[in-house]
Amino acid sequence: MNVKLMKFLRDEDGVTAIEYGLIAGLVAVAVVVGVTLVAGNSTSGLEGIFTKIGTKLTNLGTSIGT
To answer: With contact defined as beta carbons under 8 Å apart, do 39 and 45 qualify?
Structure first.
């Protein structure tokens, strides 16, 4: 029993999975913070950029005749 306990305590296989999970969590937080800062509340933010792109694509489709 004592040998199995010591082997379990020295086992580090699961540590890398936990580290990758923590890194993924930190990246997710960074993405959310970045998008929030870029989006803002004005039309110059991320929503405004996508609206502008959508409008130009719609106008392009109309001018082509689709």
So the answer is: yes
8 Å CB contact between 49 and 42: no
CB 35 within 8 A of CB 46: yes
Residue 14 near residue 3, CB atoms below 8 Å = no
User: Tell me, what's the pLDDT at 28?
Assistant: 94
Per-residue pLDDT band at 24 (split at 50, 70, 90): very high
Residue labelled with tokens 């392009």: 60
Can you tell me the distance from the alpha carbon of 16 to that of 64, in angstroms, rounded to the nearest whole number? 54
Q: What is the pTM of this model?
A: 0.44
